[in-house]
């Protein structure tokens, strides 16, 4: 697979790309990078500094060989993919599909590793089960011996089972950003929220094959609650950014 953009790892172990490399890959003019970056990265109301991007101070080479101070941005691959969707060009779609191919390839290797891990866990559980059964048999033999000797066997109190893990807290900030953008879109173009969300869910199905209408809903659960429960809120956010964001 040809490498369109170099993917590196930051100090937190996350995959990042250079905003300048992305900008060039999208086919934009290098003379207006600063304006594009300010509008689509720094002043983007749907991006979070420290999560989606980090500013980098770099040295840039001029045509005459001289170097000057400049600025670049380390973008998360998810955010870079969203910027490709915002480009709304054939080149942007090509780069977005490249990101998708990289992501799909990365997901295949963990799938094999997880299968091996699952088999190992099953083997360990089986071994532990056999150990527990042997321990229970030994305990029964000991208890029978004590009963035959007229001694009442002592019983240890059962240990309390651990409580199940709590459900992670909802991402209220992300939901508010989505709702805010949808409301602005509806006010500007006269669409209803229902019409807009139906369109966004259709885009989710088109982009990722996620049909939210086929997922079972809990009693009284809204569709956006379902999207968040299944961990698809960031994908909905990406569609909002690409489909109803107002960029020049």
UniProtKB/TrEMBL annotation:
Species this chain originates from: Fibrella forsythiae
Protein name as annotated: AntA/AntB antirepressor family protein
Superkingdom of origin organism: Bacteria
AntA/AntB antirepressor domain ranges (all copies): 17-89
InterPro entries: AntA/B_antirep
